[in-house]
From TrEMBL:
Top-level lineage group: Eukaryota
The species this protein was found in: Eudyptes filholi
Membrane-related topology note: Multi-pass membrane protein
Localization, UniProt: Membrane
Transmembrane stretches, start-end: 6-22, 43-67, 87-106, 118-139, 151-175
Organism classification: Eukaryota, Metazoa, Chordata, Craniata, Vertebrata
Pfam entry (one): Acatn
Sample GO molecular function, one term: acetyl-CoA transmembrane transporter activity
Protein name: Acetyl-coenzyme A transporter 1
């Protein structure tokens, strides 16, 4: 129902834009240096070759390795320990106003000449929250009751998620502000797209690797079968 409703809203609004929005008849000369796909990719390669851009790409591709496991695996581990998925989904609802307000607040600190300072300051706190998430996963089975989990447990989870959102958005808004600041206005679209793509890739590949490593790095034991290691999916099934 949720997906159907918003799918309908999306189709209606985009159709209304297509039918009712009129383009400006006065043509303004474009300042873009690129004229086609070939020129665009040639320009991209010339941007990537710049030493400063190479250094920045290397930094941003590896910056999120430290908290990739906490970001990608915590929710799955909480579900594995018995926390209902629908309860975790409900906890995302109070995060929506926070996610709207945070960029407005953080943008005040990233509007200056050095927007990446906010990125650097938020990183240690996000790393510490990774340890807090690990403690949360360890603590979850200890507070589990017959009827589920107590209210104070969900309050702790909600506060943890809220603090995580603050650090996440501090880094996200800072990197977006930096990308906008350093992009050449003449080729702004191409420049911004390149830097934002690298930023997104820097967040996605560590999470993928973290999820892939969960099984090999998880220590398992078999109750009542001393000779079985349960180290592989086949042994665990047996």
């Amino acid at each position: 129902d949720f997906l159907f409703f918003w799918g309908a809203v999306f189709l209606i609004t985009t159709t209304l834009v297509a039918l009712l929005k009129k383009e400006n008849k006065e043509l303004t000369p474009t300042k873009e240096e690129t004229k086609g796909i070939t020129d665009t990719y040639r320009l991209l390669f010339s941007i990537i070759k710049m030493p400063a851009v190479l250094t920045f790409c290397l930094l941003i591709l590896t910056a999120k390795v430290g908290f990739s496991a906490a970001d990608a695996v915590t929710g799955l581990k909480l579900v594995e320990e018995g926390v209902p998925k629908e309860h975790l989904a409900l906890l995302a609802v109070p995060m929506v106003p926070l996610q709207i307000i945070l960029p407005l607040i953080i943008s005040k600190y990233t509007a200056g000449p050095q927007p990446l300072n906010t990125f650097y300051k938020a990183m240690p706190f996000r790393l510490l929250l990774g340890l807090e998430f690990a403690f949360l996963v360890w603590w979850t089975p200890k507070v589990k009751q017959e009827g589920g989990f107590p209210v104070y447990y969900y309050i702790v989870v909600l506060l943890s998620y809220a603090l995580h959102q603050i650090t996440l958005y501090s880094m996200y808004v800072a990197i977006m502000a930096f990308n906008a600041k350093v992009s050449d206005p003449l080729i702004g679209g191409t420049y911004m797209t390149l830097l934002n793509t690298v930023s997104n890739l820097g967040g996605n590949w560590p999470s993928t690797v973290a999820l892939w490593l969960v099984d090999p790095l998880t220590v398992k034991g078999c109750a009542g079968a001393q000779e079985q290691t349960c180290g592989t999916p086949v042994a665990a099934e047996v």
